[in-house]
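Reviewers of the previous submission asked for a worked example of the structure-prediction workflow described in the proposal, so we include one complete record here. The input consisted solely of the amino acid sequence. No template or homolog information was supplied to the procedure at any stage.
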Amino acid sequence: MESLVESFLPEGASEQRTLQDALDRCRHLGMRLSRQRRMVLDLLWSEASHLSARDIFEKLNQQGRKIGHTSVYQNLEALQSAGLIECLDRASGRLYGYRNDPHSHITCLETGAIEDLDVTLPDDLLREIERRTGFTIESYTLQLNGRRRIATGASSPVPLP
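From that input alone, the workflow returned the following C-alpha cells.
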C-alpha cells in the first residue's frame, strides 16, 4: 500500500483544462462569449488561484480592462452554474477558481491562502470508509488545513515526492 504522501500526483498531472477548453465549452453550451466573460476567464486562468469577485474586479480594472461589479458577479455566476469554474464558500465570502475537476484543497491557517491538491487515497482506505458508512464512494475531495512548515535550513517548503 502506498503512503498518502506517495499518492500525491505530480504537479500538473490532473485533468486540468486549458483556457481554450473552457472557451470551447462555453461555445458548446451556447453561452455568449462576451468581452467581459472572456476577461474573467482569462484572469482566472492566468492567476491560477482562488479569487473573490472583488479581487477579480480590482485586478481587471488595474490592468485597464474596464468591467463593472455587476458584470463580474453575473459572469462568475453563469460560469459556475455551467460547471466551468469552481466556487468555494468561505466565511469571508465566495472564492472562484479556474479548476472544475475533482481536486482537494489545503488552506493555510495563518494567511488563509488556498492551494489546489491532486490526491489519490489508497483503495483499502476507501473500501474501509464504504464498509463503515454503507455508501459507495464515487468521488471525493479533501479539505486540509495547516500551517506552512519550513524544512530546517531551507528557505522554502520541501516539494512532495
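The longest helix spans residues 35-47. We consider this example representative of the routine output the project will generate in years two and three.
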